[in-house]
Structure formats: structure tokens, C-alpha cells
Amino acid sequence: MIFRAVEDADLIRQAGRGSVEAYNLLISRWEKRVYNYLLRITANREDALDLTQDVFLKAYQNLRKLDDPGRFAPWLYRIAHNEAYSMFRKRRPEADVDEIEPEATDGGITVGGSSVFPIELSLAVASALGRLSPDQREAVVLKIYQGFKFDEMAEILACPVSTIKSRLYTALELLKVELAPIKARGVS
Amino acid sequence: MSCSPFDLRDYFLRELTDPQRHQVEAHVKTCQPCREELDRLGVTRAALYSLRDEEIPQRIAFVSDKIFEPSPWRRWATGFWGSAARLGFASAAMLSAAIVVYALRPPAPVQVVTRAPAQIVQPVSDSDIQARVDAAVARAVADVDVRHAETNKQLVADLEMARKRLLLAAAELDLSERRGLRDKVANANYGPPHEVGQ
Q1: Considering all CA atoms of chain A, what is the largest pairwise distance in Å, rounded to the nearest integer?
Q2: Which of B15, B44, B191 sits opposite A86 (nearest CB)?
Q3: Which residues of B touch A (CB under 8 A)?
Q4: Nearest to A165 by CA among B125, B87, B43, B9
Q5: B197: distance to nearest CA of chain A, Å?
Q6: Per residue in A60-105, pLDDT tens?
Q7: Contact of B178 with B171, CB cutoff 8 Å
Q8: Do residues B180 and B84 lie in contact, with contact meaning Cβ atoms separated by under 8 Å?
Q9: pLDDT cut 90: percent of chain A above it
Q10: Secondary structure in 3-state letters for chain A
Q11: Which positions ≥6 away from A107 have C-beta within 8 Å?
Q12: Sites in chain B below the pLDDT cut of 50
């Protein structure tokens, strides 16, 4: 159990009244999650960092429009989603956003160093995620890595829960086919 | 196709209520295919978790920027005029000061009118003299009251004018700040606007 002396809602209210210090504390609680969400849908560290900064600036400018501080997380991720797709559109305006694939990076977004998982498994996971469509990948990131509920995902992605479930279930089937055997060999 | 009473994927993704979860768990204990399906989903999730979160390479923080903060003048004006008690106290203090100043001011010089002595002197009774004195005193008191009322009215009008000027100045200052903020945001080049927080 994590105890926080000051809840996010209090920080949001203080930040809404102009307290930069409160907003900086709020950022420190969310920047890593937002950065990793953007990193997994853009697959580019520089883009993810730039977008993260843009997201928090835009959130600060629009904080007073947030009616319910309890919905801060989906509201913030909605901004992040919009910023990411706005960047995709600027770079490939002629392409359908659904067809835009993240840029490949050297070594992908795998985790090296002291990982307890075999590097082959991380590469396999990155590869499997890379084969999903952008919509499916984002659904997996929001659900598996970010832990959002279906209704929150629907709010972030601005689409019905049924669509969210369809994307996620399809993605899980594809990932299961590719990763379950690999996982069984790699970790057992 | 799963034979579970509820979708195994919803159970796996923790989207079921507690009673629904209990039903699925009871079913899985007796159903080998569903148990194997859940195992595979679990293995898939464990594999996905091998991609762990990265540390953000550069911490994000904002500094206190004047463009995002109301000016000290604006904060003072808002705080002062926004409080009815303070406004009332200030008005009462100004009126009190005005009354004290007026009371301490030396009286206006009395105009002495000399008249030629009457050719015919008529006897005047004490009651007539008293009535004339009373009338003169009443006129003098009425004149003083009128002057007091006019002075107070002028002071209140001056106070109201000063308050309106302060509010107008604060509004103009706020408008110029908003224009500055709009220009800065426009220059930041965020691209086409789109809906936020939907």
C-alpha cells in the first residue's frame, strides 16, 4: 500500500490555482508512466520525451477545464494520445493514421542491463508488439502496461468499449500465439 | 470457444466483478481447457512484462513564469475589491476621515452687514427678538446640514470613481496579459488545435 500525504486531487486543485510547485510534484508522479506510454506507441525515445513535455504543458494550460480531479489519469492520457497522433499526422499527413507504424529504433525499446528476463524474450516481445496494428498495440499498452479499465480506455481513445475489447482481444490472441511458447522455453 | 460462464479474457484482465470472478474460478477448477487457456494468457502477460518501464531521460519541471501567473497588481486588486468587508471598511475609513477633516476646518467668515439706522424706531418685544434669533439659528443649522450633505455626496462620488478606475486598470492589465499568453502559445507552434480531455 502506498501512502501519499497529498493526494493527486489536492495537487490538481492547487495547480489549478496557479501553484507551479504543486504541478511539478504532480508531474513527478506521472512523467515516467506517460513517457513509457508514449515510448511504446512511438517507439522513439526523443519523440516520447518531446511529447511528454508537450503533454504536461498542455495539461497545465487546460487544467481548469478538468471538472473531476478523479478523472485526471484518463484526461492526461487523452492529451498524450492526441499529441502522439497529431505528430503522426504531421509527419505522414497523406497516410491513414491507422496504417502508420512507429519508427524503428536501434535496438528497439527493449530493456537491457540488469533485466532478469532473457534478452531474447525482450526482443521477441518487442517484435511481437511491433507486428500489431497501432490501435491494437495502444490497447495492449493501456491495459497491460498502464492498467486502465475498459471505460477509461474508451475515454482516452474516444471510442466505444466494444471497440476497445475487440482490439485488445485480437491483440492478445496474436501475442499469445507468438509469446506463450517463447516464454515457456525462455523462462521455465 | 470457452465454456466459462464469463469471458476468460475479462477475468484475466480483471474486468469482472467479485461474484463473477468467483464463478469463473470455480469453473476453472473443474475445466482443464479453460485452465490451460488462462495459463497461456498468464504466460503471455509475463512475457509482456519482460519489457519493463524505462526511466525518463530528462526530468520535467516548470519554473514559475510570469506569463502563467496573475500580476502582483492584479492579485492585489482582486484580493482587495473581491472582499466586501475590506471594501466596506475602506469606504467607512475614507468617509470618517472626510468628516474629521471637515469638522476641524475653520468656519467660514461671517459676513457683517451694516444697515442705516432706521428713521422710525419702533418698540421691539423680547418675544420678537427671541423668534428672530431662533429663525436665524434654524437657517444657519439648515445651511450647515446642506453643506455637509453636499460634501458627503461629493466624497462618495469620488470614492466610486476611484474604484471604477481601479477595476478598469486591472481589467486592461489582465487583457494585455492574456494577449501576451495567446501570442506565446501561438508562437509555440503546437499545430492544429484539437479537443482536450474528452
Answers
A1: 55
A2: B191
A3: 9, 13, 15, 40-41, 43-65, 68-70, 185, 190-192, 194-198
A4: B9
A5: 5
A6: 999 988 989 889 999 999 999 999 999 999 887 655 555 555 544 4
A7: no
A8: no
A9: 58
A10: CCCCCCCHHHHHHHHHCCCHHHHHHHHHHHHHHHHHHHHHHHCCHHHHHHHHHHHHHHHHHCHHHCCCHHHHHHHHHHHHHHHHHHHHHHHCCCCCHHHCCCCCCCCCCCCCCCCCCCHHHHHHHHHHHHHCCHHHHHHHHHHHHCCCCHHHHHHHHCCCHHHHHHHHHHHHHHHHHHHHHHHHHHHC
A11: none
A12: 191, 193, 195-198
Cα(B181)–Cα(B165) distance, integer angstroms: 24
Query: What is the model's pLDDT at position B125?
Result: 82
pLDDT, tens digit, 9 for 90 and up, residues A24-44: 999 999 999 999 999 999 989
Model pTM score: 0.59
